[in-house]
Amino acid sequence: MSFPEHRPRRLRKNSNIRRMVRETRLSVDNFIYPMFVQDGKGIKKEIPSMPGIYNLSVDTLLIEAEEILKLGIPAIILFGIPEKKDPVGSEGYAKNGIIQKSVRALKENFPEIVVVTDVCLCEYTSHGHCGVVKNNLIENDPTLELLTKMAISHAQAGADIVAPSDMMDGRVEAIRCALDKNGYNDVIIMSYAAKYSSSFYGPFRDAADSTPQFGDRKSYQMDPANALEAIKEVELDIEEGADIVMVKPALGYLDIIYRVKDYFEVPVAAYNVSGEFSMIEAAAKNNWIHRENTIIEALTCIKRAGADLILTYFAKDAARILKQR
Ligand code: PBG
Fold first, then answer.
1. pTM of the prediction?
2. Of 101, 149, 195, 303, which is the active-site residue?
């Protein structure tokens, strides 16, 4: 039995009916807003390839945090731009590193904001790779020790969630063990579990000045052609103790989000990355697309695919748009 008995258009007749049968509801509760911090005072420097996104200092970060809370966004993820970089990324786990200072200030002023920290060496190393380098190779096991130091220092500062994004093997287990041993058994791990080696990270690397100085990240980040491997990566991270698993990027990887959500019983996060953000902003600036509608559509599609949480540079705008609708 089909037409004329079946007329799916009946359920699209007007906006109230559409609202009643809508399957996916985007909410500000789902958003995590990424932010970049550096040393200094009164800094609010726009990132050229990411209009409306800024490098901040701790004082301006606090001003932004207040606005974020007012908009109802529950969480932020912090990326640090250190004063100086070295081959082992020392500033990443220094007691007075930029992230450690930022987390302490945030928690002092706004204890309720959920603070996520990115655990990775690439912003802090002079070579820009996410691990220790020897003979131009990225060494897995020696990197784990540095990542655990970084995670502990973030927890010590008051981070609620640590998010390892380096893609070294075994890092979730190493970080979980180290956190527990140091009394941080309530700190959540959100692992960048299926993180692809993607060209869509371009603008972020401008913002964090973290482009690898030689080679690329293909020996640790995943091949965009692979899907089964994502299941394996996620399975390992959950076994190792990840509480939340992430797929990154989001828009080109909706099938991966769907598979991961279908297969596992943990919250799934998706990272709507810098390149995805900048493409929409650039097209909207040219009046080639409707900015607000495109933002809401893109985020709704990410949620429909199965993401419980969405890391997005659009979080503030989307929160405002959702409030108006
Ligand atoms: C650090 C890290 C990156 C991003 C998040 N954490 C860059 C990279 O892996 O090169 C990208 C985020 C974005 O593009 O918005 N490893």
1. 0.97
2. 195
